[in-house]
Amino acid sequence: MQDVDVVVIGGGQAGLSAGYFLRRSGMSFEILDAEAESGGAWQHAWESLHLFSPASWSSIPGWPMPASKQTYPMRSEVLNYLREYERRYELPVVRPVRVTRIARSGEKLAVEASDGRVWLAKAVINATGTWSQPYLPFYEGVDKFDGLQVHSANYVNAQPYVGKRVAIVGGGNSGAQILAEVSTVADTTWITQREPEFLPDEVDGRVLFERATEKWRAQQEGREPNVPEGGFGDIVMIPSVRDARTRGVLGSIRPPTRFTEAGMQWDDGTVREFDAVIWCTGFRAALAHLSELGVVDDQGLIDVDESRVRSRLVPSIWLLGYGDWNGAASATLVGVTRYAREVVSQVSSYVAEASPA
Questions:
Q1: Mean of the pLDDT values across residues 274-296?
Q2: Residue 30 in contact with residue 10, Cβ under 8 Å?
Q3: What are phi and psi of 17, to 5 degrees?
Q4: How does pLDDT run across 179-230, given as a tens digit for each residue?
Q5: How far apart are CA 17 and CA 23, in angstroms?
Q6: Of 106, 133, 295, 332, which is most buried, counting CB atoms within 10 Å of its CB?
């Protein structure tokens, strides 16, 4: 059993950002990461994934991401950056450690891992992200579909789909980017809940972060934000998506009523056959290890005051990096910094009060 001031759960971009500020705080801490290697969820992203912000707008605190030869850095460049970042700041990341349970232990929290190890902490920063919890919507008959089904969490490249009939389900950026790639080698159908929202060609991550910053400032000042419509949920027209538009494959149709063994059926009786379905339907926060504390609701969410868990019984847990739920743009590389700084400031005050001289 190890005793530290703070345990950070998750060694991705949010966990490393918290580690940067914790290193400067003087508190003792360890970062527990379930992955075997550094890089967080980025190591599982599809091979052709690109950011939609330049390197200068894709950095976590302290050290700017090195410039890319391309406008938008590739997944491999993000991975290299996070690995070097971890080494550069000598962050105490322990891996692979899968946290399975957190329980109260007197005035502290006992953080238990699957291998039996336990950490006692005065405070916990939960930065587990969402990649390990892919979301699949329910459709009647989907379990009887004979074709290949894969979630974007496990999509690698377009090679398995050459010459096939493929349905891409989901209207966000992942759906658009995977559609753009797969449509070069397969007959694709894009299925979305509503008509996709495309941002103007000149809008990229820089503009979106500026909009998110204005929303954050407006919230702090108690006023309405002065920004146009469009945010991180809308589709950024990176080069591959613009190419898909030129090829005329960005049109989408609404979801089917049910699945069949060979494909899908719509409520007007239309039937389409598919060889594969790629689900780009998002993720849910990975919070199962917090369930015994009684803070996770029926929807799998936690009531927070910005980042701090609202709980009289467990006042020593903070969430970091889950997007609008606990901070606009907090799930992005460039956006997590301000929230990590504030979380560590709050944790530092809490630990100081819990450890009187």
A1: 95
A2: no
A3: -65, -45
A4: 999 999 999 999 999 999 898 888 877 777 777 777 767 777 677 777 665 5
A5: 10
A6: 332
